[in-house]
Amino acid sequence: MTTTPTAERTEFGYDDLRPLMARMTGDEKHDNAATSTLDVLWVLYDRILSVSSDRVDDADRDRFLLSKGHGPMAYYAVLAAKGFFAPEELDGWGTVGSRLGFHPDRVLVPGAEIGSGSLGHGLPLGVGTALGLRARAKHDPRVVVLVGDAELDEGSNHEAIAYAGRAGLGSLTTVVVDNQSATHGWPDGIAERFAREGWAAHTVDGRDHSALYRALTDTRHDRPLAVVARVEPRN
Amino acid sequence: MTTTETPATTMRERFVHTVDRALDDQANLAVVLADISSDRFEQAQARHPDRVLNVGIREQLLVSTAGGLALAGMRPVVHTITPFAVERPFEQLKLDLNHQGVGAVLVSTGGSYDYPFAGRTHMAPGDVALLDTLPHWTIHVPGHADELDPLLRTALSGDGLVYLRMSERQNSEPVATGPGLVRVRSGGTGVVLAVGPMLDPVLEATANLDVSVLYAATVRPFDHRTLRAAAKLAAPDVALVEPYLAGTSAHVVDDALHDLPHRVLSLGVTRDNELRDYGDIEDHDTAHGLTPKQIASSLRAFFR
C-alpha cells in the first residue's frame, strides 16, 4: 500500500520511495535515468548494508559509495526513507542553503560516504577504502560502489578494476547499473570485463529484488564482486 | 632495523628512511606508490604488506587510493615523479582529496627540470602553481634534506593536505627549521625571497648587493608577517626567486604588501616557451636566467 510520507513517520517502505522522489521532481512519473538506481539502492539499504543513521561514524559500518552522482533523487529518497535526514529536506533540494545538491556532497549529506558527480572517482576511492579497512584489520565491513555502464568509459575505473582483482579485495563490491547508455558499448557484456580481471561477476535483472539480493550476497573472501544490474535501456 | 643509521644524503633517501621508520611507529600510516621508488620500499613492504601499496603505473588510482585510505581512517603518503604526482591526476587531487574533505601527504621527486635529459615529459615546473589553485594545501619546498625531515615528520603526524616537493639539488647548508620565512641576510635597498634550492644561487648573486635575503622552505601557507616586516625595514621592493614557474608566489607577495606601494620582480622557470632541450641542470638554469650571474644581473637592474 502506498502511504504519504509525513514528518511524524520514521519508517518507510519501498512503496514510499516514489512519493519521496516526487518531493524533488514534482510528479510521480520519472524517466528511466532518475529511477534506474532505485531498486538496487533499496535492496542495498534495506537488506544488504550494515549501516544506519545512528552509525554514520561507526568505523565498522559498511560503506556505500555512489559513484554515479547524476540523478541522485533515488539516492536521496532512500536515505530519507532510512532516516538519515528528514523527508522535508527533499523539498528544497538544489536550492541555496539545501544540503542536497544535484550531485551529492559527503560533507553536507548525512550518510553519503563520498561526494560525486565527476564520473570515474567512486570505484578508485572504494579500492582505497577497502585497502584502508584491511590495513586497520577491519575485515567485516563491505565497501559497495555503484557505477553506471556509461561511467565505465572513464579510464580511472579500469585502473581500479585491474588492481582490485590482483589485490584480491574480497570486501569490495561494484554494482553496475546497466541502462545501455555507454556510447560505444561493452561487447560480450560488462560482467566479462570484471571476470577477466579476477572478479566474481553476476548479471541480473536490476528490477528483481530477489535476484539482486542473491547476487549481492555472493561474496568471496579472495576476490571482489561485480553485480551488473540490467534495467530498461535509456532511450 | 632494516635501514641504515647513517643519515641519508639526498632528499629522496631521507624521505624513504624517515617514512620507513615511521611505518613501524605509526599504525595508521600507509604509503601508496605507482612503481616509482617501489624498490626503495621493499623492506618496509615486507614488514607492512597492507600499508605499503604499489598500484603499478596507475596514477589516477594512486591518488584516489589515498583518498579512500584517508576516508577509512588512514594517513596516506603518496609518492611519485612530479608530473605524475600533480599534473596527470590533478582532478583526483581536487576531488578525491580536497572535495572529500580528507588529507594526505603528497611527496614528489624530480622538481622542475631535475631530469633535463628526459625532456619535457618529465618536467613539471607548474606543479606548485597548479596546487595553488586548490585551498588548504601546505606546500613545502625544502632546500636541504635536513630541512625535509622535520617538515615530513610534522606532515606524517598531522591530518591535513601537504605537498612536499623534493629536488635533486640542495643548498650547502640547511636553514629552515619550521614553516616560517628565515632572514638570511640584511640590507637596505629591498628584499630577495629565495625558495628552496634557489638559496645558494641567490646568496652568490647577492654577495655584493645591499639587500635583505629571506628564505622559504614552506610557501603555503605563506608567512606574510615576516615578509612585511622585512619590506618595511628595507624597501617595499621584493624579488622573488622560485625554482618553478616564475611568479607562482607573486600573488601572495602582493597580498602581504597589499596596502604598501611596492614592486615585485618574479624570477623562476620561464612561462613563455616550452624549452625543447636536454643537457644538464645547469644548461636549463642558463635557459631560464637562473644562474647566479644571471640572477645578479636581474637583481641589479631591479634594485637600481
Automatic annotation (TrEMBL), chain A:
Gene3D superfamilies reported in the protein's UniProt record: 3.40.50.970
InterPro entries documented for this protein: THDP-binding, Transketolase_N
A molecular-function term among this protein's GO annotations: magnesium ion binding
Record domain Transketolase N-terminal: where: 30-224
Protein name from the UniProt record: Transketolase
From TrEMBL, chain B:
GO MF terms held by the record: magnesium ion binding
Cross-referenced Pfam families: Transket_pyr (PF02779)
Transketolase-like pyrimidine-binding domain ranges (all copies): 9-175
PANTHER family: PYRUVATE DEHYDROGENASE E1 COMPONENT, TRANSKETOLASE-LIKE PYRIMIDINE-BINDING DOMAIN-CONTAINING PROTEIN
The name this protein goes by in its record: Transketolase
